[in-house]
Design a protein that fits this description.
The chain has 559 residues and is an alpha+beta fold. 28% of the residues lie in helices and 13% in strands. α10 (520-535) packs antiparallel against α11.
Length: 559
């Protein structure tokens, strides 16, 4: 996560995650290009052919109390009014974020609408909405909005929706797609679902394994895609016990125990995070998958967890640079998710982070940022081995601006690659045999990669097979440095300032003791894995649950 050189820092964590990030950026882009090749090769196939049944591929979740030494995976919802939808309700419905229970979500949507949505994403990168019927723990909801959610996790779909390229042209496709919705994560209030008059060719399935599951998205397996489900998209005030939005996560592991435990440990550390739930997820009566479902950081989430203010999401294609005082310059870098529309707090914060001199940065940062919380954030992200954080290739973070004290808090997001070292180069490693056709396509051009080349510090000898695809050249310079995907001005300057790097070191030692050495993290892991072994072996075999839990547990005791 943090690119710094002081010998006092935990360099094994940093160098390991630096390499992993290099592989991530490279492999996901390669797989996107390969997906396009496969789409071209399969363009003559009959789109009406039924898709092959997938093997179980899942996810789970956690949400502990804030007392670090006694972590419970169950965090009851607060301020949750009864559902206002006209749905069928069991006598004693479970709290959706009661993580001691395996929950159930089934969705049904029109296949033509779904194919049009996939086409829209592949053609221009837009994540359009479709209308669906959804059942959550036995309660039915109609006219529910659904759309794709994610970035690198959608690499298998290829096309304009992922770096690396364009969608192959299908000359037989004369359909007309109309979609008046936008691609925002949660603030879209339009009422028009994606529709299409004629069925189109659905892109070929992505690689089954990918890099720790990344790039494995397949349009033929909608039950495995990352989704945002929004109950009130088309019906105002439709909720499930006060909940309106559900994020169905992608995962780098089969069980998603890694993200389940990660979000629980974030809460145990006293940091704002999302509640999570293990779900048996079904789409259009296809085979069920075990999936992890998280809260979506929106207006309701902000009010319950942080208070009155404004919430901004960092875009994967953006960064923490200062681009001047014109808000339009930040549209591809930041999106406001909650609060009164106003990018001024972010712009002023980025101005200070990027343009203050070192002395001013050190003396005045606490007037702009919750410094202690940020030190804890960076420390736990490193302990969780989450290289895809604020400084990672996905730029994963939110900024919360408190209207009362005018201070920014960094909010963690996206932990599907945390606690999953085994998914990088292990069972889910980058294996060219997993690509469509079993190899990198002829003529693959490295210029399709982000930045037009392999990331700095990428070491092909550590890839399965020990080499890069033919024609793909590593960068000059060697070594493991510079492989984190992106520089982050805030993280870099924070760690370069002695008093702040000391806070980080102290936070690492304290959180390691409170969460790992105390056994609290292992107990949380045991609670989650026991629930899966009791309730979910029809979705994931017992041996996989046990092996993934064991791999995570080894991280807690590693020196």
């Amino acid at each position: 996560m943090n690119n710094f050189n002081s010998p006092s820092h935990d360099t094994p964590l940093l160098s390991r995650r630096s390499f992993c990030a290099s592989v991530l950026v490279t492999a996901t882009a390669v797989m996107a290009a390969c997906s396009n090749e496969a789409s071209t090769a399969d363009s003559t196939s009959d789109p009406s052919d039924p898709p092959t049944a997938p093997s179980g591929s899942p996810e789970t979740s956690a949400g502990p109390d804030t007392e670090p030494t006694t972590i419970s995976p169950t965090t009851p919802a607060t301020n949750s009014p009864q559902s206002t939808s006209a749905s069928t309700q069991p006598a004693t419905p479970p709290d959706f974020y009661d993580s001691s229970v395996l929950h159930r979500i089934s969705v049904e949507f029109n296949e033509d609408d779904y194919e049009a949505m996939i086409d829209e994403f592949v053609d221009n990168g837009e994540k359009g909405w479709i209308e669906s019927a959804v059942t959550i723990d036995g309660r039915d909801y109609r006219q529910v909005g659904m759309r794709l959610k994610g970035n690198s996790s959608l690499a298998g779909l290829g096309g304009a929706g992922f770096p690396g390229g364009a969608r192959p042209v299908d000359t037989s496709d004369t359909s007309d797609t109309s979609d008046t919705s936008d691609a925002s994560d949660a603030s879209d209030t339009s009422d028009t679902a994606t529709t299409q008059t004629d069925a189109t060719v659905v892109p070929a399935a992505g690689p089954p394994g990918g890099l720790g599951g990344l790039g494995s998205a397949s349009a033929d397996e909608p039950e495995g895609l990352p989704w945002l489900i929004r109950l009130d998209k088309y019906i105002d005030d439709q909720t499930h016990d006060g909940l309106t939005e559900f994020v169905v996560r992608s995962s780098s592991t089969v069980t998603a125990l890694n993200e389940a435990v990660s979000v629980g440990l974030l809460a145990a550390a006293g940091l704002p995070t999302q509640r999570a739930s293990a779900v048996e997820f079904t789409v259009n009566d296809r085979p069920a998958r075990l999936r992890l479902v998280l809260e979506n950081p929106n207006e309701e989430w902000m009010s319950s967890n942080l208070g009155d203010g404004k919430l901004y999401k960092a875009d994967a294609s953006g960064d923490y640079s200062y681009r001047g005082d014109d808000p339009s310059s930040y549209t591809d870098a930041w999106e406001q998710e909650a609060g009164d529309d106003d990018l001024t707090p972010v712009i002023e914060f980025l101005d200070f982070v990027n343009n203050s001199d070192d002395a001013t940065f050190a003396s005045d940062l606490d007037e702009h940022l919750d410094v202690d919380a940020f030190a804890d954030y960076m420390a736990i992200e490193d302990l969780l081995q989450n290289f895809d954080d604020i400084s990672g290739p996905g730029n994963n973070s939110y900024l919360y601006y408190d209207d009362g004290d005018d201070v920014i808090t960094v909010v963690a997001w996206d932990h599907n690659l945390a606690l999953s070292a085994g998914g990088i180069g292990g069972g889910g490693g980058f294996d060219p045999s997993q690509l469509p056709g079993g190899t990198v396509p002829d003529g693959f051009d490295p210029s399709q990669l982000p930045g037009g080349t392999i990331p700095g510090g990428f070491d092909p000898s550590q890839l399965p097979g020990g080499t890069l695809p033919e024609g793909v050249e590593p960068p000059q310079g060697g070594g493991l440095g510079g492989g984190l995907g992106k520089n982050n001005a805030l993280a870099d300057r924070f760690m370069a300032t002695p008093e702040f790097s000391t806070l980080y070191d102290e936070a690492v030692a304290r959180l390691r003791s409170e969460l790992f050495d105390s056994g609290a993290a292992q107990r949380l892991l045991d609670q989650w894995s026991t629930m899966l072994l009791t309730s979910a072996t029809h979705l994931v075999d017992e041996a996989t649950i046990k092996s993934e839990a064991e791999a995570i547990g080894e991280i807690f005791v590693a020196e």
